[in-house]
């Protein structure tokens, strides 16, 4: 009988249940038969799947911010726009406008 005693991300699996027993927000990828993070989650230390985050919300890694907001990063535990980018609401980082560009 097959019963995993401990699984990490990218370990072999037979079903998503195997992965979810050990890693929240993961599933068993059908083609590779390995545990991977669900959509809008990022792998962290091969042991966790962290949720995507919007501007002003909590984060641990830059990837959490960048999944939903290009040109963002994690600074002091919060998602913010990269240097020289301007925040628009909680989901956009705009480049600075140039002469004759449209402005908001």
UniProtKB/TrEMBL annotation:
Residues 37-93 form the EB domain. It comes from the Eukaryota. InterPro entries: EB_dom (IPR006149). PANTHER family: ECDYSONE-INDUCIBLE GENE E1, ISOFORM A. This is EB domain-containing protein. It comes from Parasteatoda tepidariorum (Common house spider).
